[in-house]
Design brief:
With 81 residues, the chain is mostly beta strands. It has strands spanning 2-4, 8-14, 30-38, 45-48, 53-54, 57-60, 63-71, 74-80. It is built from no helices and eight strands.
Length: 81
């Protein structure tokens, strides 16, 4: 899910890698996820909020790319514009 604030874009990610058993018993962490987003504004910073870590990113035109090192069950990425 993507939501936009005044000075940020928030990307909400949920990891659904568990088996098809309910309730969820074990989530398999995903690592090194490459994410590409089209962002027209100048990107100042990208931060994984649950990891409490700033992420390196690159820009090519309006395409912003970064790697999320790990997502366990949930992550929110803040893209400061």
């Amino acid at each position: 899910n993507i939501r936009r604030g005044e000075a940020s874009i928030f990307l909400y990610l949920i990891n659904f890698t568990s088996s098809m058993v309910r309730p969820i018993q074990k989530i398999v962490p995903c690592t090194n996820l490459k994410i590409n987003l089209f962002v027209e504004e100048n990107v100042k910073n990208i931060r994984a909020l649950w990891l409490a870590k700033n992420l390196e990113f690159s820009r090519k035109g309006n395409l912003t790319s970064f790697v999320l090192p790990v997502i366990d069950d949930y992550e929110v990425v803040e893209i400061r514009i």
